[in-house]
Amino acid sequence: MKLKRILLKLSGEALEGNQGYGIDPGRLLDYASEIKSVAGKGLQIAIVIGGGNIFRGLQGTDFGVDRVQGDYMGMLATVINSMAIQDALEKAGLKVKHLGGIAIDPICERMSREKAIAYLEDGYVVMISGGTGNPYFTTDTASALRAVEIKADAILKGTRVDGVYTADPEKDKKAKKYETLSFDEAYKKNLKIMDLTAFTLCSENNLPIIVFNMNRKGNLLKLVQGKKIGTIVQK
Predict the structure, then answer these.
(1) 179 lies in which domain range?
(2) DSSP bridge pairs for 209
(3) CATH code for position 109
(4) For the segment 113-163, what is each residue's pLDDT rounded down to a tens digit?
(5) pTM above 0.85, yes or no
(6) 3-class SS at 112?
(7) Are residues 101 and 128 in contact, defined by beta-carbon separation less than 8 angstroms?
């Protein structure tokens, strides 16, 4: 698959590194290095990251926070993570623009398809924070929505495992990896690749999802170069 424009989806938890919380400076530098390795090769990159290392909306309901309020708190967590990645990328010498489902002057502009595409075509890495800007939607759904809006060739979902398996490979040593899957197969097998809203959006818009291990050095570059990395889900 020839990739010219991608949306890279990262989990907030991935930024924890070995700390188990917050943002690990080492992991941040590793990710900046991986992204820089592909940014100079004519690839247009948008990035959506979750906020689970800081606050997840549903967590708040466990101790009495209103669901809508909790979701907005989670959106702000994604802004913090996006700012951290933006800073790391800029220190690595890349041009970065930060757009958000929630505009926060002077931190990020309001997300619009036109702005995002214009920045991508002008050579910027585009961070998109704040989810969809609405409660009750996950950052999985936000990444699918943004990818469709900017007409990305694929969503690259960076995880800590090297693809989609028949079971959790961290718990079941007999789990087998899928090289390819159709959207229908993944749905029928109840494989938890993205939440159902995000998954349906990708399926209806024929937007491939590539699940790969972002924590393995060089994987992002190999994937962009066309090597078989991870699992691809498509029509």
Answers:
(1) 5-234
(2) 155, 233
(3) 3.40.1160.10
(4) 999 999 999 999 999 999 999 999 999 999 999 999 999 999 999 998 899
(5) yes
(6) coil
(7) yes
